[in-house]
Every structure is written in structure tokens, then in C-alpha cells.
Amino acid sequence: MGASRHRHVHNAVFDIANAFDNCGSLLDEFLGQGETGVWDEVKQSLKEDPNGPQVDLREDLIKHLGRRVSVLTDYQLPITTTSERLMFAIEATNPKAVRPPSRSLCRMIRPQNGGTWEDM
What we know:
By secondary structure, the protein is α+β, with helices and mostly antiparallel strands. The protein has helices at residues 16-21, 24-32, 38-48, 57-61, 95-108, and strands spanning 5-13, 65-76, 84-92. It has one domain. Strand 2 (65-76) and strand 3 form a beta hairpin. 38% of the residues lie in helices and 25% in strands.
């Protein structure tokens, strides 16, 4: 028999655009240890850095998202450092518009466990 699996799905509905527009001070605290303007610098860098994804988070991505968010968790037994898997799913009101910036942002992240982002 295969290893047991434990799956959970958590769903939420909230105003993603409003949360994005008002998260600056929280992210300044988290990313910049309280230094103001760090989140704005990160957004500017993501948009303008020639070696970055060149994505305007608000205009290219956030404005095309809906209100539904799902988080799927999966744990394989026995528990090890690689047992947990997470997947976030966010409703897209314009899937064609969301795809290019999503791909660009994902290419910034090094895939774990030998995976690739090429199939996105």
C-alpha cells in the first residue's frame, strides 16, 4: 500500500485589490524591518529592473484578480522535511491578462526539487 495522504482545502473571499493597495506598511515592517518605502522599492524594481520580470504588480496582475482564494495543502506520511506541499489558487477575472505577468514572476523563483516553470 502507498503512504497515507492528508489533504485540506481552505477557501476565502476577500477584496484582493484593496488588500494589495493597503499592505505597504505591513510589508515595510516585514521586508524592511520597519524602514518605510521598502515595499514601494520592491514594486518599482519588479517593474523597472531590466534583469527582473518587468511586471507592474497592480496594473498587470492585481487588477485582473477576482475575490476567491483557495489554499490546498497536502501532507505525505511519513512526515519529513519535504512532506508538505501547498498550492494557492486565486480567481482570475481575465486569465489571458494574468498569464504573462505570472510567468515572468515565477521565472524569478528557483523551482524546488528539480521542477521547472516551463509548463506554466
